Protein: Anaerobic glycerol-3-phosphate dehydrogenase subunit B
Organism: Neomoorella thermoacetica
Amino acid sequence: MLQDPVYERVFDVLVVGAGLSGLFAASILSKKGLRVAVVAQGIGAVASSTGFVDVLKQTPEGKPADDLRDAFAVLHTRFPDHPYAKTGWEKLITAEDYFLELTEGNGLKYRRPSLTANVHAVTAFGLLKSTHLVPEAAALASVLRHKKVTILSLAGYNDFNAALIQGNLAGLLPSTKIYRAQAHLPGEKSLKSSFGWKSLTIARRFDDEDERERLIKALKEAMRGRETAQVILLPAVLGLDDHPAVWRAVRESLGVEVFEVPTLPPSVAGLRLFNSLKKTLDILRVHLNLNCRAIRSGIFGDRVDYVDVAGEGRVIRYRARYFILASGGIVGGGLVERDARIFEPLFGSPLTGAGRASYRDFHFDTGVAVDQDLCIPGFTNVLACGRVLGSYNPYSEGCGNGVALATALKASETVKGEAVG
């Protein structure tokens, strides 16, 4: 039996979900003077991601998005229900601009090498991934071509396979000379676990200024006799909270270009992005409850009046004028599959593609239906953004984080226009 609420909180907007779309929407809304709360069961998928912002690898028809602006025009004419057809190209660029401003303001600088074309970033497996916004320290194919590159692994750290990366990159970048070296970090002999170093453990050691000097000394020792290297690739563990200073110190000490390659989850690069977004929300005094589960909503006619959330043995009722559903897909719990049926459990939202039986059948385009303003049909004060939306496949199209940013901005503008007016 569900508990009655212990107490109530009242806000202008309640965002359900703490992934990229939810956190981004909350920051936009709060900066516009609205009282915003975010509720979620955990910290979302951002923290386990590579930190890249993929916009569009290919259209739903499988045609490569060589020119992103042209690809958006195709989506607008041929796939009118696609989230990008509702936001448009300019909305995405505006969202990216704000994202770049937000992250740089928190010391986490991103790059957009081209406005209308993707770049190719090195993945944890040594493959090349089409993406649009990348952390400043990320390794790109363009900076590796025609260079002598050394992949520097860390002894005792098992989430970075230098041999695999070398083999794959050698096939993809034939003009690049790729070598391997291994550094032995201080404390390696004291490792007790067969699992070796953890990504966060190394990153936090780099954050400590005294430890940093010892770690960098170990990196320099590993590169002794390899002074011809023009680029060094390291796993993405160069600091968590003080990453810019760590990256700068490593480059200055080694005397060459140094870039990071993503590691297997948990991802330090993803945690940096999550922490940057959360820092913005903390500064803006956004209410965050990231240890709860939305269990029911109060629906009266065409409006939602409240959402009850359960966590830590109590139920809290959040009343708001507007609600943004950014709860993710089936992995994030925003959609539920039961008895060969997929549904949205909090508001009972209508879905697109709902007749397709199961996510196990790879019908990833099932999601919440929305109108052109991203409002959920049947409600006047509920919108949706991010992965919970339907009519697109973020995996095959390579567009998950781009859709998250663009739809978060559009939903936020819709709310703002109505709330202030």
